[in-house]
Specification:
alpha+beta, three-stranded antiparallel beta sheet, 3 helices, 5 strands, 47% helix
């Protein structure tokens, strides 16, 4: 077998092989880049949604926690507590349940909490409406947005 004969067979085998041309490879890379960008942007939106749900759940927990503290204050038998002292005109109640600003020691960072008492709601003399508001600023990819609030309320009635 001659040297030229072997080379000729190799050359004809290479010529028969299919492959990608440069423009085809560039188009394929562009499609991959677009797909990866779409997946990453979806991940950012998903992470933002999970963080928003976490913040909302924490705010609801803080509201329910304070509501339980107010209810415990209302049923307490201690001298300066109890039903008649569930009122912001009472110094003990006012000191125990102040409006807590952002950064208050008793709250996680990024939350503030207020308590509102409405005496005799709807003209019911033996009732008090308690509302707890917890405010927070949800984070987005663009940064913090306007303040959001979670509220919970209950009606306390004297026996």
């Amino acid at each position: 077998m001659s040297k030229n004969g072997a080379t000729g067979r190799v050359a004809s085998a290479v010529e028969g092989e299919g492959g990608f041309t440069l423009p085809e490879a560039l188009v394929a890379i562009a499609f991959l880049a677009i797909g990866i960008a779409a997946v990453l942007s979806s991940a950012v939106v998903g992470i933002s949604g999970v963080d928003g749900a976490r913040r909302s759940t924490t705010a609801l927990f803080l509201a329910e926690q304070r509501l339980e503290e107010v209810k415990a204050f209302a049923v307490s038998k201690e001298l300066v507590q109890g039903w008649v002292n569930v009122d912001f005109t009472n110094a003990t109640f006012n000191a125990k349940f102040p409006a807590e600003p952002y950064g208050a020691v008793s709250l996680p960072p990024g939350y503030r909490r207020t308590v509102t008492i409405t005496n005799n709601p709807g003209g019911v003399a033996t009732a008090k409406q308690v509302e707890i508001w917890v405010f927070y600023r949800p984070m987005t990819p663009a940064g913090a947005v306007t303040e959001t609030a979670v509220t919970t309320a209950t009606l306390l009635v004297s026996r």
